[in-house]
Specification:
The protein is mainly alpha-helical and 438 residues long. It has one domain (16-435). The protein contains 20 helices and 2 strands. It has helices spanning 23-46, 69-91, 94-113, 123-126, 141-147, 157-160, 165-175, 181-207, 209-220, 232-253, 256-270, 280-288, 294-313, 317-330, 338-353, 355-362, 370-385, 393-396, 401-405, 417-433, and strands at residues 62-63, 434-435. The protein has a two-stranded antiparallel ribbon. Helix 8 (181-207) runs antiparallel to helix 9, helix 10 runs parallel beside helix 12 and helix 12 (280-288) packs antiparallel against helix 17 (370-385). The protein is globular and about 55 Å long.
Length: 438
């Protein structure tokens, strides 16, 4: 497989085996549908016995069909990415590809959100359970960190379930004069869609530009975009993705500075979401791609430095996690049966990834990004079995989406339009059929 960079208009040479739809692909697609439909049906039965509040199983929300003029915008944007995307990503210069992919992902996410109107972009961040309602309570970052654990029960629901980092990010935004949910939404969506560029850089560093180009249209067009515009978890995804990208680049270029930067960014991700721990296997694979432990050791030093810095400032990560777990288990988690959500979580995540990921996993044995995807799946399994993610994982596990989608490098750019169309249709069906809080 090769990419002839002498002429940017040359197309990618593809393994002939990638051009055929195999029985394995069909089985994977049917398995994806069976998992989701089985959980959708079973969820209605579970809801008769438990107050799960997951009214559109496996997704958090409720069934509500909305079709209007904005639906045409979604169809137009999806069609443009499906029809032009494969050709564009195979011909444009690499650096421009990074920007174009992020812009396409952002446009797709925004078009989906517009099904519920312009207000749907900022409303999720200004609700009574979200982060912004707590910003005015911060007199100083130091005091906020020192008292965060003691006052945990007084904060909004999402703040109780996370470290203090996101509230501080929004406080900093307000300190700069960018006050309100609209500015917060701009920041969250921009950082969220930037994860596409970070993922492409990572795949290029680990397995070459050819594979990164194959991945680009699948990063731009996925059902996960529904939760990029707008949930704070999109911000977590972007920060985590750049930490992994810096680590992968540090390993490729043998740069301690890049590896350290990756560790520092991943350390910051831990103070945005406790779930960022699930990125650890991905970080190990990214650091070890070029057969060296040094990048991982340097990055680990960066992570410890951030943990120590927050500790000195008054917030000890492990204390916060302990209190958050206690609050979670005393809340809605007590109404959500563990055994059921171990399965339902996987169905919700499968919906966020789309059918392409299922078909790609069926080709895992010949995927150049298999290690990256397997590492992400280890994080998924760990998060699932922890019992700390009972439902709502379509947004909570966004941080792992780019790395599972990396399996889509197994698709031929010349023949992937059908699979891309399935991705878009899955997203459209979710967005127009299920009303979610995000």
């Amino acid at each position: 497989m090769s990419l002839r960079l002498e002429n940017p208009r040359d197309e990618i040479a593809v393994d002939p085996a990638q051009r055929e739809v195999t029985r394995r692909d069909v089985v994977a697609l049917l398995g994806w549908f069976a998992l989701i439909s089985g959980v959708a049906i079973g969820g209605q039965v579970v809801n008769e016995s438990f107050a799960t509040n997951v009214l559109a199983p496996p997704l958090f929300g409720r069934f509500d069909v909305r079709v209007g003029p904005a639906t045409l915008l979604v169809l137009t944007m999806g069609w443009a990415i499906v029809w032009f995307g494969p050709r564009v990503v195979s011909t444009i210069p690499w650096r421009i590809l990074l920007l174009v992919t992020a812009l396409a992902a952002g446009s797709w996410a925004l078009s989906l959100a517009m099904v519920d109107g312009v207000d749907a972009l900022s409303a999720p961040l200004s609700g009574p359970h979200d982060y912004l309602v707590n910003v005015e309570r911060i007199d100083s970052p130091g005091t906020f960190l020192e008292t965060f654990v003691d006052r945990l029960e007084t904060y909004s629901l999402h703040v109780q379930g996370h470290p203090p980092g996101m509230v501080l990010v929004f406080w900093g935004l307000a300190w700069l004069g960018l006050v309100g949910a609209a500015w917060a939404a701009v920041l969250v969506i921009a950082v969220g869609v930037s994860a596409t560029a970070a993922a492409l850089l990572t795949v290029k560093a680990m397995s070459g530009e050819t594979n990164a180009r194959r991945l680009a249209p699948f990063l731009a067009l996925s059902p996960a975009a529904i939760w990029i515009a707008t949930s704070a978890d999109a911000f977590f995804m972007g920060v985590g993705a750049w930490g992994i990208a810096l680590l992968a680049l540090g390993a490729e270029r043998r740069s301690d500075y890049l590896s350290l930067a990756g560790g520092l960014v991943l350390g910051l991700a831990l103070f945005l979401s406790y779930g960022a721990v699930a990125l650890a296997p991905v970080a190990v694979v990214a650091a070890a791609a070029h057969r060296g432990l040094r990048p991982l050791l340097v990055a680990t030093g960066g992570v410890f430095a951030i943990v120590a810095l927050f500790g000195v400032a008054g917030f000890w990560w492990f204390d916060g996690l302990s209190d958050t777990v206690a609050a979670y288990e005393a809340g809605v988690a007590s109404q959500r049966p563990f055994a059921w959500f171990v399965v339902a979580n996987l169905a919700a995540f499968a919906l966020a990834l789309g059918p392409a990921a299922a078909v790609g996993l069926g080709r895992l044995h010949r995927a150049p990004t298999a290690a990256l995807t397997c590492a992400a799946l280890i994080g998924v399994v760990a998060a699932d079995l922890s019992g700390l993610s009972k439902g709502e994982v379509e947004r909570i596990w966004l941080i792992l989406v780019p790395w599972v989608l990396a399996i889509c490098v197994t698709f031929d750019l010349r023949r992937c339009r059908g699979m891309l169309a399935l991705q878009g249709l899955a997203a459209l069906a979710i967005q127009t059929g299920v009303r979610t809080p995000w």
